[in-house]
């Protein structure tokens, strides 16, 4: 169950980036569960990682390796998160990096590990090591679609986005994939995201883009309010195009930023559309806030309300649940008589109660749609924020009750 068509695009190859896929049989025999990115020498990468203090071993190691060396390889496994595994987890992640490094002729610090799957179980190191020769032998210039499938866990469909842009007469390719469907909450979410471009981007500009765009996209989605241990989003610049280096003051940076933002948003929205059991794609837009945190507090309180989310699943225009969520969001001195709440273009709340022109029929017409916008104007300032979420269905409970079986 997912919202929208969800078809993969025809990916543009990114010069200097090759992808390989293999099956290690970590959770299911024969399933592709290993993905390797091979990056050209001189490639640069910037990362955004989970803020969960029980961060997974691969997150710890990726942070360490990024600080030491420019990466040449990314190693991703599904079926096992290697989280909650203590010192052994870091040793296991490092052993996989060392095995790949030895076969590829690079140092272990030039390998970034990423894992997703069940928490608390030891990483099956030998299975991963045994699959590495196949993964390396299968690398190709445009295997983005296969890689998108290879990083899935409870996802019902692969997720990807791609674009080509002109930077001052030089053609730049951008392609990306993501995974995630549950345990999704910003900071980041249970998700992995990998975006690559063949532009040459200065290190400080690359990190600035990774942080800014990740904050505006992956850190604005939520399925269930649960922050994972393994979240990671990596932005790669291979530098293989024939244009100049893009710096923070480059005239081409705004064009590149806009194109990358579109990719980030597409990948983040795809996660929400494929939320576990999702039947609705919901945009929550808060305007008129006095501060950013105030706007986010309101948006997330509505997005995380089980009563709001179940009403969305039922297509029940029970607008009182939205009103109640706004009222408990913790906004100091909130003037409930000034704010307005909308469902699509239908005003639900005005002057402290139900809007005079509201009708159940108009509200129901919006709730019956697959894609819904909830608008909240606090009338307190000029700050706006947007968060994307989905509904809660029976399938969400079923998927998570049966996750380890």
Describe the structure.
The protein is an alpha+beta fold and about 400 residues long. The chain has 2 domains: about 15-275, L-amino peptidase D-ALA esterase/amidase (4-Layer Sandwich); about 280-400, ArgJ beta chain, C-terminal domain (Ubiquitin-like (UB roll), Roll), CATH 3.10.20.340. About 35% of the residues lie in helices and about 25% in strands. It contains 11 helices and 15 strands. The strands form 3 sheets. Strands 13-12-11-14-10-15 form a 6-stranded mixed sheet. A 5-stranded mixed sheet has the order 3-9-8-7-6, with helices on both faces. Strand 6 (about 160-165) and strand 7 form a beta hairpin. Helix 1 (about 55-70) packs across helix 2 (about 85-105). The longest helix has 21 residues, at about 255-275. It is globular. The two termini are about 20 Å apart. The mean pLDDT is about 95.
Order of helices and strands: EEEHEHEHHEEEHEHEHHHEEEHEEH
Strand adjacency order, main sheet: 13-12-11-14-10-15
Give the CA-CA distance, first to last residue: 20 Å
- Estimate the helix proportion, in percent: 25-40%
What shape does the CA trace take? globular
- The CATH architecture assignment of the largest domain turns out to be 4-Layer Sandwich
The CATH superfamily of the largest domain is L-amino peptidase D-ALA esterase/amidase
Mean pLDDT: 93
Overall tally of structural domains: 2
């Amino acid at each position: 169950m997912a919202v929208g068509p969800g078809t993969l695009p025809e990916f543009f190859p990114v010069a200097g980036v090759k992808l390989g896929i293999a099956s290690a049989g970590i959770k299911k025999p024969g399933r592709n569960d290993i993905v390797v990115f091979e990056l050209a020498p001189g490639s640069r990468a910037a990362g955004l990682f989970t803020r969960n203090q029980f961060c997974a071993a691969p997150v710890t190691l990726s942070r360490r390796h990024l600080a030491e060396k420019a990466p040449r390889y990314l190693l991703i496994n599904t079926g096992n998160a290697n989280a909650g595994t203590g010192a052994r987890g870091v040793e296991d992640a490092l052993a996989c990096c060392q095995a790949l490094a030895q076969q590829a002729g690079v140092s272990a610090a030039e390998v970034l590990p990423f894992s997703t799957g069940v928490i608390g179980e030891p990483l099956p190191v030998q299975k991963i090591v045994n699959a590495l020769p196949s993964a390396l032998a299968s690398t190709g210039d445009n295997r983005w679609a296969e890689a998108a499938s290879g990083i899935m866990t409870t996802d019902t469909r692969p997720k990807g986005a791609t674009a080509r842009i002109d930077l001052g007469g030089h053609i730049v390719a951008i392609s990306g994939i993501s995974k995630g469907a549950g345990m999704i909450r910003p900071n980041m979410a249970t998700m992995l995201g990998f975006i690559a471009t063949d532009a040459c981007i200065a290190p400080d500009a690359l990190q600035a883009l990774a942080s800014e765009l990740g904050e505006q996209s992956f850190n604005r989605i939520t399925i269930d309010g649960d922050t994972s241990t393994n979240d990671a989003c990596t932005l790669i610049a291979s530098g293989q195009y024939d244009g100049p280096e893009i710096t923070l003051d480059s005239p081409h940076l705004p064009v590149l930023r806009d194109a990358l933002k579109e990719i980030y948003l597409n990948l983040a929205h795809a996660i929400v559309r494929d939320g576990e059991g999702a039947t609705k794609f919901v945009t929550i837009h808060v305007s008129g806030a006095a501060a950013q945190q105030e706007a986010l507090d309101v948006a997330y309180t509505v997005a995380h309300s089980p009563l709001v989310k179940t009403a969305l699943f039922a297509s029940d225009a029970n607008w009182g649940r939205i009103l109640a969520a706004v009222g408990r969001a913790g906004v100091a001195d909130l003037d409930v008589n000034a704010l307005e709440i909308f469902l699509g273009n239908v005003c639900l709340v005005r002057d402290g109660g139900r809007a005079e022109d509201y009708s159940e029929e108009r509200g129901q017409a919006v709730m019956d749609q697959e894609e819904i916008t909830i608008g909240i104007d606090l009338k307190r300032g000029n700050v706006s924020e947007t968060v994307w979420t989905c509904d809660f269905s029976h399938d969400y409970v079923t998927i998570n009750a049966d996750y380890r079986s």
